[in-house]
Amino acid sequence: MALSQSRSINEQIVALLQRALEIEAQRQSQAKILHEIHQARWTPPAIAPDSVTLLREIRGYDE
């Protein structure tokens, strides 16, 4: 791999380590975003009507 990209072994090792660090930083960023999304989820209260009931009220089917 190093020879195909005209790099010394040391340069290739450094490049691979840098790429690994970039991937890890990206993974941590994604994990943080997913955690924030999970924390921000909203659950309606138990007494809230379901979507079918709300649609029937809006469309006037319950009249």
Key descriptive features of the protein:
single chain, 63 residues, mainly alpha, 2 helices, 63% helix, 0% strand
Can you describe what's shown?
The chain has a domain at 1-43. The protein has two helices and no strands. The longest helix is centred in the middle third of the chain and has 31 residues, at 9-39. The relative contact order is 0.06. 63% of the residues lie in helices and 0% in strands.
Mean pLDDT: 89
Helix run count: 2
Q: N-to-C SSE series?
A: HH
Tell me the total number of β-strands. 0
How much helix is in the residues?
55-70%
- Give Rg in angstroms: 27 Å
Q: Main beta sheet: strand number and arrangement?
A: none
Extract low-pLDDT stretches. Answer: none
Structural class: mainly alpha
Strand content: under 5%
Distance between the termini: 74 Å
Shape descriptor: rod-shaped
Brief characterization of the structure:
The protein is mostly helical. It contains two helices and no strands.
Task: Summarize the topology.
Blueprint (H helix, E strand, L loop, with lengths): L8 H31 L11 H9 L4
